[in-house]
Amino acid sequence: MVPFDVFLSRLKQEFKSAPESNPGERVLQVENWTRDGRGARSVFNVYWSGGETFRWKGANFARAEIEKVYNVWQDYITGRVGRGSIRDTVWNTKPIFSLFKKV
Question: Helix, strand, coil % (nearest 5) of the chain?
Fold first, then answer.
């Protein structure tokens, strides 16, 4: 895994290359991702207007939340940490997990 700041830079670059949904707001279509592969194969939008905050389905999530999940990502992937324990501290795990797999 790359350092978090490198990941975040790549994520923002991905958004900068994405189409605008509204003036000044970029949108990425992201496929739902689950560790066990049993989740629905749906696609949803994540929005970014610059800065450190992202949005999906009307909920905002910020750099700090993404970084919390990033710090335990390898433990989650290997099964040492469950999704529930992550969700106890970070509400928006669905878009964050899916962005990790996209970038």
Answer: 40, 25, 35
